[in-house]
Amino acid sequence: MRQAVAVAVRRLRAGGVPVVAVGGLRQCRRVADQAGLGARARRDNLSGALEAVGRAALAGRRVVLVDDVITTGASLAEAARALRAAGADVVAAATVAATPLRRRW
User: Fold this and answer.
1) Could you give the CA distance from residue 13 to residue 19 in angstroms, rounded to a whole number?
2) Closest to 63 (Cα-Cα) out of 88, 82, 43
3) Which residue positions in the chain have pLDDT lower than 50?
4) Which long-range contacts link 68-71 to residues 24+ away (Cβ below 8 Å)?
5) Predicted pLDDT of residue 101
6) What does each C-alpha distance from 3 to 66, 78, 103 come to in angstroms?
7) What is the DSSP letter of 64?
8) Entry pTM
């Protein structure tokens, strides 16, 4: 994950965006392994699992979330929820890879 953050910071800075990497989240409860879970189960598994650290430093800040892989978006959604609860303005998310969306026709 740290590599993904480092790449995102370099790319944003190269584009002229003043950016600082901040470890603004921590896990506040245990969660089950996500492997094999569908989108709804992943969302339920992660609901309320993250909290912002340094709430005062996040309030009013524009935040770009960085994740290594997006599968269903449940991790990014939970991260955004926790950061918004701390007063951050989550403006975007950047990922290195995405899994293909499975369609059940």
Assistant:
1) 6
2) 88
3) none
4) 68/1, 68/4, 68/95, 68/96, 68/97, 69/95, 69/96, 69/97, 69/98, 69/99, 70/95, 70/97, 70/98, 70/99, 71/34, 71/42, 71/98, 71/99
5) 65
6) 10, 21, 31
7) E
8) 0.82
